[in-house]
Fold:
Amino acid sequence: MCGIIGYLGERQATPILMESLKRLEYRGYDSAGVAVIETGDGTRHTSVTKSEAKVDLLIAKLKENMPTGTVGIGHTRWATHGKPTIINAHPHADCHGRISVVHNGIIENFAEIKAELESLGHEFTSETDTEVVPHLIEQYYKGDFLLAVRKALQRIKGAYALAMFSLDDPELLVGARLNAPLVVGIGEGEYFIASDITAIIPYTKKVLILGEGEMAAVTPLGPEGSTLDGQPVDAKIVHVDWDVAQAQKGGFPHFMLKEIHETPEAAANAFRGRMTDDGLVNFIEFAISDDHLRRYHDVRLLGMGTSLHAAMLGEYVIEDWAGIRARAEDASEFRYRRPTITDETLTVVITQSGETADTLVGLHQARERGSLTLAITNVVASSAARDSDGAIYLHSGPEIGVASTKTLVAHLVTQYLLALRLATAHGRVSLERREELARGLRELPDKIRRVLDNSTDIARLAHKYSRFRNFMFVGRGINHAVALEGALKLKEISYLHAEGSSGGELKHGPIALLDPDFPVVAVCTESSTREKMASTVHEIVARDAPVLALVSEGDGSLDDIVTDQIVIPAADEATSAVLSTVALQLFAYHVANELGRDVDQPRNLAKSVTVE
Ligand code: G6P
Structure:
């Protein structure tokens, strides 16, 4: 997500904030800002400087008018609520500009808190969820800043890493975290709060790691850790010996591997604040009534590359759960056909960047034909978001590896929510089923973590299979798209030949390729066609091709049949499809790495294809 830096010490804060924000740039962002406490002539005020674009612009502004002071906070923003503008850039303040806050994450209940504070007379200036934090602290402030912060944080639901200060307590910098990372750097007579070790690594290697739901009160005497309700916690201080490049990758050798490890968070961010325990879905950015939604009997999902495979999974669940006709389409083909789109069609564009040329043309054509259009994208105010009737954001944070990983997982979860939303509006889903599906989604982040825990085993298999030059990926039902995506991931980053087929189609041609040097990756996890897939595996084994099967935990039926297995946690078929996808991302990563490929920037590929 965004980047946070805070400083309290003996040096001037502004140059340190500027340098640290430069080091946080690699994460991707759209705007930036700093706030510094300036003291002089017995008065005190906060100097705020913001840029609606790059950090360099912010630095130029700061150099022109350099705030002086030894306490400050800075932020690089990746927009989630509200466009990248000066007003929406952080830091945000209370009504009187006394409290300054920078935030990473999503505040789920901000709308409710904002309405309450507005009724009490608070005036908001931005569209962000973050702005409720300084106002809520202001509301609770009765002379003790730390206490007011604690009370405010106990009201806030969702995910946050926060750094904040108050003019009323100028030697106190407060950091807090829940479901988002935050560390405190301990230097010589100076302290740092950062979302990311990268920001502070040139200044100190001594770092206090905050736990979930913990906060740190940093004064010139040092940091004191506590829980949100004020119970002291033991400081977990570690020594990091990473260089800046290692720190940017969070200690992982590649961004792709780091981003695969961020998939649990990406899944959680995609449903955070959008789904009740009984499976009622509400997209704040795409608020549409049940009556209105019932007008649509046809859903077109347009995408390219990995996003097309995401769309295929969307097609499956929308048909299965909502009983509505759905079709995933290659946007580059769609644009040259005469699409049978009407005003009963809902067109959904699946695009992490929101800038893929073919997808945008498809979107424009659908709109011209009277379809209601919706973009599911990771980039706020991207072309797809602007040109559609509605936009739903993935909230995955920037993805740097060219091959999409965490944004794919977020696309799947978001489409599952959309399918549930449609199923509810059309009255096609029972309360029990809704609860069951919602439970499956809530358990997903932990189950993905269990797949990641199995990384060593997947790396071992990748090592074994990296000697082959051709691969076939096979799946049925919901897992057909999983197989196609597994093949795409492998070919794009390892440059090995890999193709995907449905289990049924295999017999109609691709099976002729199989021999002992042509392995098959068979997705045999939980699905309504699981038994059929087992028959397909028997057909493959009869051709002497090695089979690497993905199976659900507890299913031993292929134990003596296939060559190797990757076991994923048991789950319903939609959840299993996400788990298999992550396992195959890891497999592709490790094969490519084994072969010494440029995993983050594979040859001939671009992260976003903005030309036809
Ligand atoms: C490029 C990227 C893929 C991505 C595709 C669609 O080919 O390399 O990773 O899936 O574009 O991108 P989009 O931004 O529309 O999801």
